[in-house]
């Protein structure tokens, strides 16, 4: 009887929810129908216009150039204004001085935190902790909305297998399944239950749709060309997962797909996104995405603007192509009134859902800005998450953790840089408030030891390259001393020390947009410095700052300890001290493969076999798929990361050796902490479809769970496997599962796994 009551209650709740949604939609439609009936053509097109406001000075909104367009109803939203007072001033112009008083939408690149910065997205992915990722987005939404921002151009979910590409730092790595789970977590954090019922949830914008991470040669904005079967099986899932999570908006990518710039691709923007996946939000271009199609060679501004609108673009960021050419295109029959009305409606629907028509100032409570931004609680969470994003790549002779005693030499161009800690695309973070690595180590060691600092080298030998890699206020105060003088200072410090902490690697703008590299190793003079530090014979801990997978062959063979810290956000440096002194046991796992050298790229774990595969563990064999000069193996595989303790895995136990099309089986392992300290482990599930109607990868991530184990403790981790988990896109792009044998692999990374087999009947 109790079960019947619960079931009836659930059905009633679902029915009431559906009725409420239908009622809300009907009310919204009536409101927008009425509003649009009053709008002129110019005002409708104005809603599609998203110019960049620059940083309007408080009190100057009414006299700015953009204000005139707002008064005329020619602006739908603005981005890149920081400060609730400024935003409120601009909104006042829209709702008090324009004819129809339609509020604006205000956006910003809130990528990995607002003022409280979290690790760069690639670092967040390394936590493999969806709850932590959701909390980071929740805090970012709270802070941004307290400062008047309620639309973020995040999450970026572009799958990338080419670490030469600078924007790999902004994504979640090489795997679509992991990327999809992160997309869902981020959207939950930003949007909550998607009702925007309070003023602390903001609208997300998944980007860059589609395939932006697969640019040729790892060069930003470059051509993308791949089969559709590869698109759907290897790249598209994170976008689809975002849509399933209810993301409010989508950003088109810069690149072309199938010979057509994504911004003009009706197949992408309408056929797949809306008709196949059921997306019901609005689509915005990337910065000047419409006007850039002129350089792609598919038409002048009028032509590319018409093509974008017809494809399914709703809002034009910066180009003003829609604003300036659509009236003419409408007269000439290149677009229809229905095309314009549809795009206008989608923008108005977003504003309605956000609650702006009921209260245009909903997100402009000036009191919140004083109490909810950059708070001690938010910074504490950022520190915790940063420490869990760091990946211990090597730890020979248990060099780490260090003891809080003795003399520590902290050396390197990144050791005393506060402004590089936050990482790329941290536009609202107060960079100068971050602690440096030197300061954090000094604070951790206290009176029990001594810290000696030496810069040791510049970022790179070439001053011009250093300028390019330290833009947007990320300068490293280039030292004009000679290379030899800098090195001597570092070696003198090393001689006085018991241990050397070398803070080396990339500056924050060495990765990110338009920051592609052909050499992804530690830069020249820094590498020379590291070699000399190792020669001293003192224990060396390499604290590696990186916005991408890097080539570290020499380092892996010669440096006792390597801790990859990405760029950890506002609290990066204190979190580094937490880990290297053992207050936190590192638990990060790589979301992307680290190659041995750049010639192996693209290198990724979920590759396919050739007809002549090289046996695992082998190097060169004639007439096999391999290289003469390097093995096929990565330096560090996907999912890899060490701990200050050790974990053992039992064999995989399957609840059944067979699975039918309506059934489910369980795969379990027992994981034991065999070391002496408590630690966290990411237990990873991979599956291989042995025989398919099309070729299938050697393994694919299909599940993971992060667990905490005390020394000597064991835990059984179980994964449910059903036919839905085994589906893929076949030759005809049908999403299917096929009967046959499957290998189940469970382990602590993609290479070191235990295997069992079942059959799908």
Automatic annotation (TrEMBL):
What parts of the sequence cross the membrane? none
Reaction(s) this enzyme catalyzes, per UniProt:
Hydrolysis of terminal, non-reducing beta-D-glucosyl residues with release of beta-D-glucose
Any idea of its EC number?
Answer: 3.2.1.21
Subcellular location per the Swiss-Prot or TrEMBL entry: Periplasm
The GO molecular function terms of this record are:
beta-glucosidase activity
Q: Does the keyword Chaperone apply?
A: no
Q: Does the keyword Cell membrane apply?
A: no
Q: What class of enzyme is it?
A: hydrolase
- Which SMART domains does the protein's record reference? Fn3_like
An example GO BP is: glucan catabolic process
Where would one find the signal peptide in this protein? Answer: 1-22
State where it is primarily located.
periplasm
Q: Source organism's superkingdom?
A: Bacteria
One Gene Ontology CC term in the entry: periplasmic space
Q: Domain Fibronectin type III-like, which positions?
A: 681-750
Matches recorded under NCBIfam families: PRK15098.1 (NF011678)
Instruction: Tell me its family.
Output: Belongs to the glycosyl hydrolase 3 family.
**What's the protein here called?**
Periplasmic beta-glucosidase
